[in-house]
Amino acid sequence: MRVVIAGGHGKIALLLERLLAAQGDQAVALIRNPAHVAEVRQAGAEAVVCDLEAAAADDVAVLLDGADAVVFAAGAGPGSGAPRKDTVDRAASVLMADAAGQAGVRRFVQVSSMGAGQPPRPGSDAVWAAYIAAKTAAEDDLRGRDLDWTILRPGGLTDAPGTGRIRLTAPPAPAGRVPRADVAAVIAALLDEPETRHLTLELVSGDSPVAVAVGSLLTGA
Ligand SMILES: NC(=O)c1ccc[n+]([C@@H]2O[C@H](COP(=O)([O-])OP(=O)(O)OC[C@H]3O[C@@H](n4cnc5c(N)ncnc54)[C@H](OP(=O)(O)O)[C@@H]3O)[C@@H](O)[C@H]2O)c1
User: Fold this and answer.
1) Is the CB of 49 under 6 A from ligand 1?
2) What is the per-residue pLDDT across 9-35, written as a single tens digit (0 to 9) for each?
3) How close is the Cα of 76 to the center of ligand 1, in Å?
4) Which residues in 102-141 are b (16+ Cβ under 10 Å) and which e?
5) Taking the model in full, what pTM does it have?
6) Is 12 in the pocket of ligand 1 (CB under 6 A)?
């Protein structure tokens, strides 16, 4: 499988690239900073420099030629203000979905966030509100498309080692945290299971092995 990862130098993305490489899949990392090429290659991915706040969908579609799936794992990140929540967390996802449609790449896994899909709590910080609005708009855009999308909303991310044990359910899930390594493992499992298309899923640490949690989405167990 050839998987193009938007935000390919992100923390989740680098973990995912290592997993994909280990299982013999090809990962292509879209990165904005040429200085990150070596690190991405060390993770086992091809590196393509592409600033998702500057690129046109036609240009990104060319990069998706021959791909089997797109993962949107970009984000404006901590320290960014409201405008970049819109240009990255919303608009770059829309750009990738436009490009996927043009290139005929149907499978699209979007990393969103718990909290999306509902208004921020009254009194929330303005940047958090902009982040949640951007994630919600990106999700809504994707749901309106003829793509095999899966929306994954992790809880609070940690850099703790993965446990391989998760809780993966339709919303609403109880608030919680989850290691980025487990998020990467869930993305890899979702890519291997296209029948998870058209699901919106919330992810926190839990008791179920990743394969069991993903499998039970299909059986309804
Ligand atoms: N933090 C949390 O607790 C939490 C919870 C739930 C969901 N999430 C979401 O999970 C996702 C991944 O998280 P993470 O921790 O892996 O994020 P991360 O390490 O901040 O990675 C995001 C990546 O997006 C890239 N990016 C930003 N602007 C770009 C642009 N214009 N063109 C190309 N790439 C661009 C960044 O590039 P640079 O490396 O060049 O900056 C970075 O590598 C994000 O969407 C985040 O919002 C976060």
Assistant:
1) no
2) 999 999 999 999 999 999 999 999 999
3) 6
4) ebebbbbbbbbbbbbbeebeeeeeebebbbbbbbbbbbeb
5) 0.98
6) yes
